[in-house]
Design goal:
There is one protein chain. This protein is mostly beta strands. Strands 2, 4, 9, 10, 11, 13, 15 and 17 form an eight-stranded antiparallel β-sheet that branches. The chain has a seven-stranded antiparallel β-sheet with strand order 8-7-6-5-12-3-16, with no helix packed on it. It has two helices and 17 strands. The N terminus and C terminus are likely disordered. 8% of the residues lie in helices and 37% in strands.
Length: 271
């Protein structure tokens, strides 16, 4: 039942947002978040070169900048890269590609301190140019909020896991480039041909939920706001999870509440 305070708060939000895009709002009774259960897509491990995946009907607009954020849980990550969003042009692979790599043994990144054992890097391709950064808080088998940012201003890029910026990328990619329209977007696989040419070693194995793409670089405070499952956050302006026409191939959908976990209040920025 709504009480007077709730109604007053809703009225205030309506006034403040008059003439603006309506926010993406959820409600929940969980202690640490206000999200209701969302819909997850499960991508099983397969030896097939055609499945599982989601194919976007339509294309992306031209993009000078983008932010891609998603909740994701990986059950297996390959040292070849495990990719969950791929956008290709007929004349060019990896126009936009994001995923996670496994790195093992002693690893000396061009940033931060060397580390031994197994670790993970987030990766962005734009115009077939790649940037990768170590993300030490990424764990297999757990839900993570992942965000990838690229802008054509000097090719700057940033990657986040659970609201924490990964080691800063020193690789600037696709400086002054504009991501082209008329391409094909696939979720859960890496395309080597338009809408196909998948390699099982590079597939995403696990769950994906609430994937959104914006045509601007979001601020760190906005990313933390989304990770903490706060009351409202905007829908993706370029891609909006399960509100765009998709063709599903061997993907299992189910309800989930990605925010029904304890969230550590202390954020650490790895540099």
């Amino acid at each position: 039942m709504l009480c007077f305070q709730h109604i007053l708060f809703a009225a205030l939000i309506a006034v403040l947002n008059f003439g603006k895009a309506m926010p993406y709002c959820y409600k929940s009774e969980y202690r640490y978040c206000n999200l209701k259960p969302s819909i997850q897509a499960y991508f099983s491990e397969s030896t097939s070169y055609s499945a599982p995946h989601l194919l976007l009907e339509g294309t992306l607009p031209p993009l000078r900048h983008f932010t891609l954020c998603t909740w994701a849980k990986a059950w297996k990550v390959s040292n070849h890269g495990s990719f969950f969003f791929s956008y290709n042009l007929p004349q060019l692979d990896n126009e936009l590609l994001v995923g996670v790599y496994k790195v093992s043994s002693t690893y000396n990144p061009p940033y931060g301190k060397p580390f031994g054992g197994e670790g993970y890097e987030l990766s962005i391709h734009v115009y077939n140019q790649q940037a990768r950064v170590v993300c030490r808080n990424f764990v297999i088998g757990q839900w993570h909020h992942l965000c990838y940012i690229w802008t054509n201003v000097l090719g700057h890029n940033e990657m986040y896991v659970d609201g924490i910026r990964c080691a800063e990328s020193v690789t600037k990619i696709a400086d002054n480039y504009i991501i082209q329209t008329a391409g094909t977007a696939v979720i859960g696989q890496e395309q080597d041909a338009i809408g196909g040419g998948f390699d099982p070693k590079e597939a995403w194995i696990g769950e994906i939920a609430d994937l959104h793409i914006w045509n601007e670089p979001l601020l760190p405070s906005q990313i933390r706001h989304m990770f903490r499952c706060n009351f409202c956050y905007p829908r993706g302006t370029v891609f909006n999870w399960l509100r765009e026409p998709l063709i599903a191939k061997d993907v299992i959908f189910s309800a989930t509440d990605v925010c029904a976990v304890d969230i550590n209040e202390e954020l650490i920025v790895y540099k």
